[in-house]
Amino acid sequence: MKRWMKGIAFTGALLMTTLATTHPTPQPGSTNKKPFGKTADGQQVDLYVLTNKSGAEAAITTFGGAVVSLKVPDRNGKLADVVLGYDSAEGYVADKSYFGALVGRYGNRIGHAQFTLDGKTYTLAKNNGENTLHGGIKGFNKAVWSAKTLSAKDGQSLELSYLSNDGDEGFPVDLKVTVTYTWTDANALKIDYSATTDKKTVVNLTNHSYFNLGGQGSGDILGHQLMIAADKFTPVDAGLIPTGELREVTNTPFDFRKPTAIGARIDQDDEQMKLGGGYDHNFVLRMPMDRGQSLAARVVDPASGRVLEVWTTEPGIQFYTGNFLDGETIGKGGVAYTKRSAFCLETQHFPDSPNKPKFPSTALSPGARYHTITTYKFSTPK
Ligand code: BGC
Questions:
Q1: Residue of 106, 127, 133, 352 to test ligand 1 pocket, by largest number of atoms within 8 Å of CB
Q2: Would you write out the chain's pLDDT as a tens digit for each of its 382 residues?
Q3: How far is 89 from 20, CA to CA, in rounded Å?
Q4: Which of 272, 273, 320, 325 to probe ligand 1 with, by most ligand atoms within 8 A of CB?
Q5: What residues does ligand 1 touch, defined as CB less than 6 Å away?
Q6: Residue 149 CB-density burial (10 A; 0-12 exposed, 13-18 middle, 19+ buried)
Q7: Ligand 1: distance of its center to the CA of 183 in Å?
Q8: Which of 179, 231, 309, 327 has the lowest tally of Cβ within 10 angstroms?
């Protein structure tokens, strides 16, 4: 080979290696990091793509710790992305729907944007009428998290950490938060949340993924069959704040103890359904005797054969049917996200617990560790 030809071949090979490292084709059983864009103040945001041994994929961004995509097989082995999201960090910066995000310090609502803890009243940022929703104006979903890949025996793990400062959105005390996502070889996304504090505060962390088991952009989720392991739910007022009652689901559209199509009763003439504009309610899960995870919900998409099970250590789950999606938000691949084109199953402590002494407590004391686990398991049973 002539010298100049060798030169070109060498440059070409070098270029290909460089491309392979910046935009590698995901290899089974690997984690790849890529640039995902920037925040408004110029901070670099990354995307971690976790590919398990069978080639199914979970992509997570450092912006808001959001799950950007989950590619899982249907009954014929065909992968589809079953969550809503955006193609780059800029989408998440502008987002108002909490697609895939880690939500904190307090997932769900706190009534009248205030609470009292040990005799002291704290006033929070209002971002939902009179109330605080999902941590306030700049919740954990708007923060850039530090990321570290970890080795896991059963899949790929990503550890995200964030320090929320004393006074952020009105919440007291510095709070150190670590969330570890593990994408297992069995197509389960395990989320391990922990937090510690130096002084007493309140914490309630969740993930806000919007699922469509037919694949994002494949239509509405009204035909999905849902089971929720709850005998009671927490009815709400006009601001979607729980009234404090734990109401039996019997003879209401909230009875999902037997698998029922999400759309079967959604437009029923029911006061609670009208207040939510569909389902937007916390269910009281049957708590197990031990402290492990128990099955909270199971969703089946008869069309694709995909099944999602939600397992958790938490006492509650918010079932939200994307009632506020209006087709104005354009997501991944240019898809317009329309009303009820996805559902959320947000594991949590009950909304407004800091103001509801009868609800399980969300207070965290120094020396104690906040620790909850939720797993989203995908399968295609025959
Ligand atoms: C809430 C909804 C809200 C949605 C997006 C859900 O957790 O319950 O009322 O619109 O999050 O913010």
A1: 133
A2: 445 454 444 444 444 333 334 455 779 999 999 999 999 999 999 999 999 999 999 999 999 999 999 999 999 999 999 999 999 999 999 999 999 999 999 999 999 999 999 999 999 999 999 999 999 999 999 999 999 999 899 999 999 999 999 999 999 999 999 999 999 999 999 999 999 999 999 999 999 999 999 999 999 999 999 999 999 999 999 999 999 999 999 999 999 999 999 999 999 999 999 999 999 999 999 976 677 999 999 999 999 999 999 999 999 999 999 999 999 999 999 999 999 999 999 999 999 999 999 999 999 999 999 999 999 999 999 8
A3: 22
A4: 320
A5: 97-98, 108, 240, 280, 318, 320, 324, 346
A6: middle
A7: 25
A8: 327
Length of the chain, in residues: 382
Tokens 């800091």 identify what position?
354
The answer to whether 206 and 381 have CB atoms below 8 angstroms apart is: no
pLDDT tens for 149-160 read: 998 999 999 999
Nearest CA to 200 out of 362, 364, 354, 353 is that of: 364
Of all protein residues, whose CA lies closest to atom 5 belonging to ligand 1?
Answer: 97
Q: Which residue type, as a one-letter code, is found at position 6?
A: K
| 320 Cα to the center of ligand 1, angstroms | 7
Q: Which is the closest atom of ligand 1 to the Cα of 351? A: 8
Distances (CA, A) of 88 to 134, 138, 216, 268, 338: 22, 19, 16, 38, 20
> Which are the catalytic amino acids?
208, 346
SS3 113: helix
Query: How many angstroms is it from 7 CA to the middle of ligand 1?
Result: 58
Given the CA of residue 96, which atom of ligand 1 is nearest to it? 12
CA 332 to chain centre: 17
Please tell me the distance between residue 91's alpha carbon and the centre of ligand 1 in angstroms. 18
- The pLDDT tens digits for 80-114 are 999 999 999 999 999 999 999 999 999 999 999 99
How remote is the CA of residue 93 from the centroid of ligand 1, in Å?
17
Q: State the burial class of residue 64 (Cβ atoms within 10 Å of its Cβ: 0-12, 13-18, 19+).
A: buried
What span, in angstroms and rounded, lies between the C-alpha atoms of 321 and 261? 12
